[in-house]
Structures are given as C-alpha cells and as structure tokens.
Amino acid sequence: MINNMVPISSRLIESMMNLGLTKKESEAYNALVSNGVMTAEDISRTIGVQYPIVYRTLQSLKEKGWIDSTADRPKKYRAKHPKTAANIAGKQIIESVNESIEIIDRLLTPHYNENQEILTQEIWILRGYERVIQKISDMGKKECQSVNAKITGPIDDDTFNEIFTCIRKGIPIKVKIMGPPIINVHPALESYISIERPLFEGKCRHSSFGPHEASEKEEFLENVHSSRFISIHLLFGKKEAIWINIPYKDNKVVKDKVWANWILDPEYISIIMEDI
C-alpha cells in the first residue's frame, strides 16, 4: 500500500495556499511528490480524505497546473516539479493582480483630480485648526488667478497672517474685513494683498460690535465680546472655496473647536462669489 508522506509543515501549507491552493490541495500535492504516480484511491487513503472529495481536489490541482493525469482507467496522477508548478501559479496570480489593478484604476480613478482628491463629494467637513490651515495651504499651492476672502468679525493678527501666508506667494489676494479696522499685515503679504473695510472707513464708525476709534485696535477689541465666533470665506479662483468657522474665548482662538467646509459645489461657490 502506498502511504509514504514527506512531512508537511504549517509554513509549507501556508506558502502553497499563498499561491492559490487549498489545504486539501496542498496535502494531495505533497502526497504525489512523496509517492510519485498515484490513483485517486491511493491519495484518499494516504491523506485520509474521502474519495469523492479527493477526486474533486485532483481535478482542481490539474486545472491550476500543479499535476498531470493519464487517460486510462483508473486515472493516475503525477505531480509537476514544485518549482515549475509554483512559478506557473505565481505568474497567474501576478497577471490576475495586474488585471485587477487596471480595472480598478480605469473605473475609479476618474472620480479623482490630479491631486488625488475625490471629486464626487462636493462639500467636506474639516475639524481642528491645524487641519484647516493645512487644507488652506494645499489649496494655496494650486494654480489659480486670485484669492478672494471675506471675514465676518474681529480677527487677531496671528490668525489672519497664518491663514494668508500659507497661500502660494504672489497670488493676488483681496480681503474684505467686516471686523476690526487695523490688521498688522505680515511683510511677506504686503505686496500682493489688498484689504477693504466697508464698516470701518473713516475715523469712527458704528457696527454690531459697538463704536470704536479706527486707529485704536486694542481699544476696539476691549469693546467687543472676548468670547465670539467669526467666519471666513476663502474663494480660490472660481472652482473651490473654504468656509472657516473660528471660535474665540478670552480673545484667543479655541483651536480644537475650529471647523471648516471645503466646498466644490458650483452653485454654492457662485453664491460665495456674489457675497464676496
């Protein structure tokens, strides 16, 4: 009775399964390597698996290119050389993987732009000051003719300058500020940023924040609520925008509560364009 078996380790089983074999197929192939030519009945006795299951297992091994069989009855089976069989299986897997990559790329890549950002979703929510600043920086590196902005309330110098200095240098920036009349603009911005203050032209104006002297920013900030909420609309060209919401407490930005909408929706952007 043929029942010799080369000891088969779990590592060998795992390696063969990585090349597309099942555990039973690995055991049947190992039996053929150990004993040479065998019938299905021989293999059934050797690996302790019922004949019908072994027969289906051998058919699968043949289809996968690991064994050959004779045409006589009962059929006899012989294992192909392990390196030959493994190379064939490996090439089939590589071809299958490459085909899958090609299909995925062809069908799904059109949903992304050249910066690998998805296009199908038109409004994204960003949370946290650092993430919002990073997004503005990413947007500011792209090609666009101009940046337009509107700030709805009193903003501090540091936040103002951090937002606008992370935009690519040289892009014309036009800012409409509905808050404090004086911003100490960072020197790097002075040559290409322009600021309008519709509510604060002249020496003294009234706003929803109360009366103030245009030349006294500190005095102005004392007249507004130290805890407040401002919004900033940033429009990059005509294709994308970001709407930032910044809470203040004791005149300091609460950075972990900052959030923003990154907007690609054309209708929403057209509304922002009219407002700015």
Automatic annotation (TrEMBL):
A Pfam family that the UniProt record links to this protein: TrmB
Signal peptide: none
Species of provenance: Methanosalsum zhilinae (strain DSM 4017 / NBRC 107636 / OCM 62 / WeN5) (Methanohalophilus zhilinae)
Annotated Transcription regulator TrmB N-terminal domain residues: 18-83
Top-level taxon of the source organism: Archaea
Name of this chain's protein: Transcriptional regulator, TrmB
